[in-house]
Amino acid sequence: RWRRLGGRRRETSLSMLTERNHLFERETRGSPGLGRLLSQERSERLQELLDKLPEAQGDALRLRFFGVFMFQEIADAMGSSVSGAKQRVKNGLAALASELSDEERGDHEL
How far apart are CA 62 and CA 51, in angstroms? Predict the structure, then answer.
């Protein structure tokens, strides 16, 4: 999968994400309380980021990834077209990626 970052293309591979997940699991294996705490913090941070998005984008992302809705179901729930639902999810994901990228560099805007 390719995505554009700063005018350059960068590949995000499933293996990279899987490797990060395994490292996280390995770090927290010895202390289940720590794993729960880190998971809770990630969840809270994600909710904060979703709350910063325009309402339509945040709602579309919640329906798609937490409600596991199909795009047609999102469109029906939000009173939009299927392409409108896809666009809201796409734009919301792009805004989240941008915010996370900015945080890594020390900037904080959404």
Answer: 10
